[in-house]
Amino acid sequence: MLIATWNVNSLTARLPRVVAWLERNRPEVLLLQETKLADPAFPSAAFEELGYDSAHHGDGRWNGVAVLSRVGLSGVTRGLATAAPTGAAEPRYLAANCGGLRVASVYVPNGREVDHPFFHYKLAWLQQLSQFVQADLSRGELVLGGDFNVAPTDQDVFDPQAFLGATHVTERERSALQAVLNQGLVDLALATGEPAGFTYWDYRQGFFRRGLGMRIDLLLGSAGVAGCLDRVFVDREERSGQRPSDHAPLVAEVSWTSPAGGAPAV
DNA sequence: ATGGCTAAGATGCTTAGA
């Protein structure tokens, strides 16, 4: 079973690449972030033609998350409720039951600047995510995937010196991410003995060509998922060529089979 | 690396990303 996560930085701009990628790789589950679409504009018919059920949570110009699945899709939850500094909640979380697993597509707030109101929103959002994870884990196996906007360690940025004073690398953000993991999740990209590497490279100044990236997109799996993990890789080819996203897909292959008796995990 | 990129709304600019 292939489970992938991809921040597409506008699904409208990236739809041809996403469709081609699905045709080539045929993942069972694809988690998308930054669709930048309102729900009525989500191209569910294009995915249905490829054999994928889908669910989307978006409200327009910013954010937007989706789950695509060709192993069933039910029990959709949209969230989280944490209010942004604007006063409104944002569409950054969508969970569903797919193939006997609970899966969730997450797009953690950026934070903008350390101690900016959006930085505190980011920390509060991660704290609420921990609660959602705790609830989901009590009901079955879980894969949480997405753009976490946190580099878990200094090894996850191209040069720690370049990030002094910046968001994504602070102790507070890393602790908030660790609290999510501490609910009982494993960082799958690190679990195979061959770390998967960077997932994001800035568009500017040839960062991708120069290897100047960050590992901020993660797939986090519960123990039962981590126990049947075969491999994890970043599809860096998707960061090159015409009109790429600034993120590449992160893909996990697991030897997962639904629980005996066909009972849903959640 | 203090932003020489991209996307999108309604635009000859702003906001946002990280």
Describe the structure.
By secondary structure, the protein is an alpha+beta fold. The protein has a single domain, classed as Deoxyribonuclease I, Chain A (4-Layer Sandwich). The chain has helices at residues 11-25, 44-48, 117-137, 171-181, 223-226, and strands spanning 2-7, 29-33, 53-57, 65-69, 74-79, 93-98, 101-107, 142-147, 186-187, 200-201, 213-214, 217-221, 229-234, 250-254. The strands form three sheets. It has a six-stranded mixed beta sheet with strand order 3-4-2-1-14-13. Strand 1 (2-7), helix 1 and strand 2 form a beta-alpha-beta unit. The chain binds one DNA strand of 18 nucleotides through loops.
Quick one: biggest sheet? 6 strands, mixed
**Compute the gyration radius: what is it?**
17 Å
Please give the domain count.
Answer: 1
* SSE sequence, one letter per element: EHEHEEEEEHEHEEEEHEE
CATH superfamily: Endonuclease/exonuclease/phosphatase
> Which residue ranges are poorly predicted, with pLDDT under 50 across at least 5 consecutive positions?
none
SS summary, helix count: 5
* End-to-end separation: 18 Å
Query: Which structural category do the helix and sheet elements fall into?
Result: alpha+beta
What's the CATH class label? Alpha Beta
Q: Please state the second-level CATH architecture.
A: 4-Layer Sandwich
Give me the CATH fold name. Deoxyribonuclease I, Chain A
Query: What is the overall shape?
Result: globular
Short description:
By secondary structure, this protein is an alpha+beta fold.
